[in-house]
Amino acid sequence: MRAGRLDRRIELQSKTETRDSFGAAIPTWTAYTTVWAEVKSEGQAGARNNEADTEQSRSERVFKIRYGPIVEPEHRVLHDGLTYRIKAVNEISRREGLELRTERYEDDA
């Protein structure tokens, strides 16, 4: 994997649970690690949500990082202030790197 293409900083986040004063679980996201990545846009598509009868804009990105940190679909990616859900994690060659296939919905919190 060529270092020159890894020109964007991304933060991988993991979901944790904290408790409020009443003992109720509150899901929060915490920084897991920050790495250099190559970012590729995979285009945009519209998705229809039948329950709320609203249309969401979804953009897909592929992040390529060096092999090293354990990345699972339960993690998420923060890049340029935008949050992306990980759909798939693929190994590049033999432990050369990881390809993170992600998507972002405009109404993500």
Topology:
Elements: E1 8-19, E2 25-49, E3 54-66, E4 76-79, E5 82-92, E6 97-105
Antiparallel strand pairs: 1-2, 1-4, 2-3, 3-6, 4-5, 5-6
Notes on the protein architecture:
By secondary structure, this protein is mainly β. It has a single domain, classed as Beta Barrel (Thrombin, subunit H). About 0% of the residues lie in helices and about 70% in strands. The chain has strands spanning about 10-20, 25-50, 55-65, 75-80, 80-90, 95-105. The protein has a 6-stranded antiparallel barrel. It is elongated and about 50 Å long. The relative contact order is 0.24.
Mean of all residue-level pLDDT scores: 85
Give the biggest sheet.
6 strands, antiparallel, barrel
Unreliable spans are none
Question: N- to C-terminal separation?
Answer: 33 Å
Question: Would you report the number of β strands?
Answer: 6
Biggest sheet strand order reads 1-2-3-6-5-4
Order of helices and strands: EEEEEE
- CATH homology superfamily: Bacteriophage SPP1 head-tail adaptor protein
Count of alpha/pi helices: 0
Shape verdict: elongated
Total discrete domains: 1
Work out the oligomeric state of the chains in this entry. single chain
Q: Based on the structure given, which CATH architecture is correct?
A: Beta Barrel
CATH first level: Mainly Beta
How much of the sequence lies in strands comes to: over 45%
Considering DSSP H and I runs of 4 or more, what fraction of the residues is helical? under 10%
CATH topology: Thrombin, subunit H
- Helix/sheet category: mainly beta
Radius of gyration: 16 Å
